[in-house]
Specification:
Blueprint: H1 3-18, H2 23-34, H3 43-59, H4 64-76, H5 80-93, H6 98-110, H7 115-129, H8 136-150, H9 154-165, H10 171-183, H11 188-194, H12 197-203, H13 214-246, H14 262-278, H15 282-293, H16 300-312, H17 316-327, H18 336-348, H19 352-363, H20 370-386, H21 391-403, H22 407-417, H23 427-433, H24 436-439, H25 442-451, H26 455-466, H27 470-478, H28 484-495
GO molecular function: pre-mRNA 5'-splice site binding
Organism: Cyberlindnera fabianii
Subcellular location: Nucleus
């Protein structure tokens, strides 16, 4: 590395160190590390290149294009083993990425793996991205791979037929291949690659064991064209329906600090809802969710929707794993909804200590979030129940919690506490334990009156603290603690009679 190059590296590194949240600094340093990199580059240059890419992808793991760039560069440098390692890392982070899969399949074909090994990877890729609306390149590669080894085999025809059933942007290409093949059918062997003998007899009314004439082939071709013309219309309709959402997808890949509009997020949400109802298979739904997560990773919306989908299908552990991944993409501003959902899942799985740890971590930055505080009350109640702790000890814990908060928030927590039907509470002790700012609130006394067995006694205490506040009087009137004459006197006085 020349002195000017080292100086540029130092300058760019310093800029990044001063502001590592600015993606432009990462791009500048990465481009510098890649520039003029060859097999004859120094150990220092290679080390700088690898460290830069490793750190970049650690910070921004959904950068598909940089994973591809990293692996391809290692291969160009003659480091096939390192390239394989990068590809494996990329697929572990982005196992549903169409871009990563297509580029990886090109790589394994180039390094000369055998047919069975490559086929295994094609099949796995199909499970992960075969339903992608833009999976044309993948399916074309798959067909070309099979044809290169075995010609237009039965497997090739089955692949082609599968392509025609999937609503793809370029669906017409595969129908064109299929109709061209049908048009040139002139031997029974090829026909039986497209349709097996049972289906041939059942649907096309042709016996594979009989002698076939030109008229038979003409009949078979006509019936196959009719069958796949009907399929063409169906696939065209499905593709058109999906296009109503696809045309509104503005960004397909992850870009740090590039914000999605409200309309973009709504479009993904509606697209996913449509797919949950109309998908051909469940993998089609899952693939779309994972695809949607890449450009929207910095927002909780799709993560939470996906988690709900898993929960609805009884996959709590999958929902949990998904949301732990989501935490790495959230900012302090949008972290809480994901944490709350995780807390509920951990509690449903009876992981109460882990749920409490999550709550406390979130409260360290959101100390007055009422939902988090209520979940803390819930999990502490469950933990204390497991340890057979006395009710009064739990009530003391809650009193200390709500006394530490503003009065309005404390009342919200108290309302939740009073909702524990199985919890035996010493109301006098509860009243005594609450701080003055709570006792000065009429809402506090309405809550106490709602819970009290001896309403008259609590009412007298309320009068001492807040006087005849309208909330207290209204509650007492509605619950019959005033006699008719008293109620009449108050109402006439209020009317000036």
């Amino acid at each position: 590395m020349t002195q000017p190059e080292q100086s540029s590296w130092d300058t760019l590194s310093l800029a990044l160190a001063n502001d590592s949240s600015d993606f432009a600094h990462w791009e500048d340093l990465t481009q510098h590390a890649l520039s003029h990199l060859t097999k004859s580059s120094t150990t220092l240059q290679l080390s700088q290149f690898r460290i830069t890419l490793d750190q970049l992808l650690l910070k921004y793991p959904f950068l598909e294009q940089y994973w591809v760039l990293y692996a391809q560069k290692e291969f160009q440098l003659g480091e096939t083993g390192r390239a394989k390692m990068v590809w494996c890392r990329a697929l572990s982070v982005l196992p549903w990425s169409l871009k990563v899969w297509c580029e990886y399949l090109k790589f394994i074909k180039e390094v000369g793996l055998g047919y069975e090994s490559v086929l295994k990877w094609f099949r796995e890729a199909e499970e992960k991205c075969g339903y992608h609306y833009h999976a044309y390149e993948f399916w074309r590669m798959y067909l070309e791979f099979e044809e290169a080894y075995h010609g237009k085999s039965t497997f090739w025809w089955n692949l082609l037929k599968k392509c025609t059933e999937i609503p793809l942007y370029n669906y017409g290409y595969f129908f064109k291949l299929l109709f061209a093949g049908i048009e040139t059918l002139k031997d029974k062997e090829t026909v039986l690659k497209i349709v097996d003998s049972t289906e041939l007899k059942k649907k096309l009314k042709v016996d594979a064991r009989s002698e076939w004439t030109d008229a038979t082939f003409h009949d078979v071709r006509a019936k196959l064209k009719k069958t796949y013309t009907d399929l063409y219309i169906t696939t065209q309709f499905k593709t058109f329906e999906i296009y109503q959402y696809e045309k509104n997808v503005k960004l397909e890949y992850y870009v740090p600090r590039v914000y999605q509009s409200y309309q973009d997020l709504v479009n993904w949400d509606q697209y996913l809802s449509y797919m949950e109802i109309n998908a051909l298979t469940k993998p089609q739904i899952t693939q779309l969710y994972h695809r949607a997560l890449i450009p929207t990773a910095n927002y909780p919306n799709i993560w939470l929707k996906f988690a709900e989908y898993y929960i609805h299908n009884g996959k709590l552990q999958s929902a949990k794993n998904l949301l732990y991944t989501a935490l790495g993409f959230m900012t302090d501003a949008n972290l809480v909804p994901v944490q709350l959902k995780l807390i509920k899942i951990e509690m449903a799985l009876e992981n109460y200590i882990r749920a409490r740890d999550l709550i406390l971590a979130s409260l360290s930055k959101n100390g007055e979030n009422v939902e988090l505080l209520i979940e803390l009350m819930n999990v502490e109640y469950l933990l204390m129940s497991q340890k057979e702790v006395k009710s009064e000890d739990y009530v003391k814990f809650v009193i200390s919690l709500l006394n530490d908060k503003p009065a309005e928030l404390g009342i919200a927590l108290l309302r939740h506490l009073l909702g524990f039907k199985l919890l035996e509470m010493d109301l006098p002790a509860l009243l005594e334990g609450c701080k003055d700012s709570l006792r000065a609130s009429p809402q506090f006394w309405v809550l106490m009156l709602s819970y009290a067995k001896d309403g008259e006694k609590v009412y007298q205490e309320a009068l001492k603290e807040v006087g005849e506040h309208e909330l207290i009087v209204r509650w007492r009137t509605e619950h019959g603690l005033l006699d008719a004459r008293d109620a009449y006197a108050r109402s006439t006085a209020a009317l000036g009679v």
